[in-house]
Amino acid sequence: VNGEAAGPVAREADHAGFLAVVSGELPSGVLDLDEAARSAVATDRASRLPQPPPVAVVRPRSASDVSVVLAAANRFGVPVVTRGAGTGLSGGAWALPAGIVLDMSGMDRIVEIDPAGAIAVVQPGVITAALDEAAAAHGLAYAPDPASAAISTIGGNIATNAGGLRFIKYGSTRQAVLGLTVVLPSGEIVTLGGRTRKNVTGLDLCGLMVGSEGTLGVVVEATLALVPRAVDTAMLAVTCRDWSEVQRCVLAVASSGVTPSLFELMDRGALRVRGPAALSTIGAPADPLAVLLVQTDGVAAVAELARLEEALSTTGAWVSPPLAATDAALMVALRRGETLPGYSDPQVGGADEEWWLGEDMAIPATRLSEYFAAADAASRALGVGLSLVAHVGDGNLHPSLTVRRDSLDEGPAQDLLHRAADALIRIAIDLGGTLTGEHGVGVLKRPWLPLVLSPTVLELHRGVKAAFDPNDIMNPGRAY
Amino acid sequence: VNGEAAGPVAREADHAGFLAVVSGELPSGVLDLDEAARSAVATDRASRLPQPPPVAVVRPRSASDVSVVLAAANRFGVPVVTRGAGTGLSGGAWALPAGIVLDMSGMDRIVEIDPAGAIAVVQPGVITAALDEAAAAHGLAYAPDPASAAISTIGGNIATNAGGLRFIKYGSTRQAVLGLTVVLPSGEIVTLGGRTRKNVTGLDLCGLMVGSEGTLGVVVEATLALVPRAVDTAMLAVTCRDWSEVQRCVLAVASSGVTPSLFELMDRGALRVRGPAALSTIGAPADPLAVLLVQTDGVAAVAELARLEEALSTTGAWVSPPLAATDAALMVALRRGETLPGYSDPQVGGADEEWWLGEDMAIPATRLSEYFAAADAASRALGVGLSLVAHVGDGNLHPSLTVRRDSLDEGPAQDLLHRAADALIRIAIDLGGTLTGEHGVGVLKRPWLPLVLSPTVLELHRGVKAAFDPNDIMNPGRAY
User: Fold this and answer.
1) Confidence at residue B351, expressed as pLDDT on a 0 to 100 scale
2) Which of A39, A345, B1, B142 is most buried by its number of CB atoms within 10 A?
3) Does the structure show a pLDDT above 50 at B349?
4) DSSP category for residue B163
5) How far apart are CA A284 and CA A334, in angstroms?
């Protein structure tokens, strides 16, 4: 056992005391001190670098297990990092070397689907796409659709308020969460929110949990709103030759009177590996600066798409005819693959010959062309490669920054990538944007917090955290 | 000046100290000690009974005025009740006799409408319908649509997280609020959230402000998301003969694949004055148990309505053909008028011959027939009249309880109405519901809080409040 205290917990953690209590109270197999097991939960997808392992891994099977662990951690001052599938991109689930990791992925039961009420009750370890699939059997859908849906958990989605591709029409995880069962650091189990669509009983502490990145408590059950499954979808692809054309398309869609169900962007860099073949398949002009995908859904998908086609016809951009379903699926897959470069598809971004940094920021979508002009200039000045995918309809941008491995060693390359990210974040903020749209602050975005949150607002954060977690054991030093 | 300390502020309020400071620092005319002015802001629409007047009224013209007042109130221990148009229905804006009232209705400027970005920046005193009208000039709409939209303010809507008639498709005030400028009790001015659609930088303190009923700080500016204005709307009216037919209609709409833009209910009692003429106008069967209104909007309103018509055709209920626009407007007006009985239309509910209590609660919409059976039995057993209007699609119910004035004096009648409300709230909670869907807890709903919020959750509320308002000057003793 690693007995060395680290991290921001004020008093020294008493690991021996903690382990004595929990090993006596937890069912067999829940507590794991094995080194390989500990190392396996030390990091997330924010970095390929190994992180120091935690003191122990706990794999709870029930709210009661979680309660035992938190009560003991609270008593013995042991930091707790809560983890779902570990697909986070900001380091929010990195282990703390003096802490434990609570791996919630085993609590993966869909407790209930109420088809008539369009409600699901799930444990936090349920994979997002699995819930959507279970809902589909009843003609329903789980609307939040992070690009990681096939591998991320509902609990992780709640921790970061995951957004994703359907956000523009359906909102983020926060809009889907009606109620939560939460274990507080004291070990007490509380319910926040409930089962109704409207609820203003008390402060919105249920909403506050969403996006709190494991700093307030542990979600052990979630009551989620489902939506009617789209009976139809329709999609256009649009190719643009310059950023002002992209901007005109964004404005045209915004003023069309139709809210698309998906409105995505891939630029030339993001398209470089698989884009040419895909564009050829749909008969688009070769080598555009950017491709936009605009989808509608529901009973009136075709009528709504016609309206969007009309709106886009004045922009100068090339607009495809409505895509065949297979082509639409191809284009969406192209877009999704890009979001986790180096992981889901080693051919795309972050490939072996490049050092890579994936970013997440948000701007008002009206400022896109200004953003790109400034970002392009800044990255060129640093000698860093820039490409962009974006949930363009809502202004949530995922720039990819790259440095060729044959030009720099890892240390200097990471430093350069960090400087480029810094420049892009400042550009976004100057345009009325913010430093994370859906990935969370975690560890990696904390240096930029003062650009967005004033000292007084950060003090409010600490006060709110203290109300939930007076001993600061929950993911201390992360998120804010 | 009323120097008597009252209310839950721990130390005695120093009114003389407060008045000396603010009268020196505020521009002329902002502070008002006139008795008539004080009495005019003492109550809201939750009661026709007069409330004791506050010590002073402040009518700020700027964030700076609000800052001066809160800093002084905080220093001298003077409770502050913040008020918009005073249309609240739960007593959340009732004056505290030892406190002051901050009347925000004069800060009523629409600061900016960004048509391309679909964003409005407003002061809190802007009337909700006025914002929607201003947005309409740009082909946009402000989606939240409380029945009080013509008379309530954005600030008041934020305080209660107002929902309303378009909630089922567009969400509540919380979904519209992107950013807030807030004056804290310390007098510090902070910004929470921002101008982007997605934003996970820090805890969602912006969302926490929405629905906080004046207990955390004072909103002095709000950045709000607008939506495309519906280019078309279409509506059906449905009449039902019993509650199981109503329930079948609710389930049919829920499983139709279409999310209506409005789905409302008026029962026989709510229809009794103007219902017969309206029903005759649209050719509906006379004297139904309930009328449902189902509206679709947008490019595909007609196609979506056809789908709803088909879904409803199997329920046994009478379904109108698509209504002419004038008839649709008539039916919506009928529905809106009922929400504030005794105020907007003295002929409807709470008429001169009745003591009246209007309620607000929410249930899962699948439990409606069970709710009504139990509520009907409970009110009959007490000899209290019951009628119902509802945002039926989302399960938000507004029962009206009445006692004939010729049967009881006011005191015993109010007691009886309170007992009937208690029964209905317990029925709602037993069915998985909650005690307020959109009006807020205010003063009147506090007795029932322990039915929904556990002692631990209430303790969390107090901790969060202390982080914002350590001296408990902001609407103390209200909301939670």
Assistant:
1) 60
2) B142
3) no
4) -
5) 15
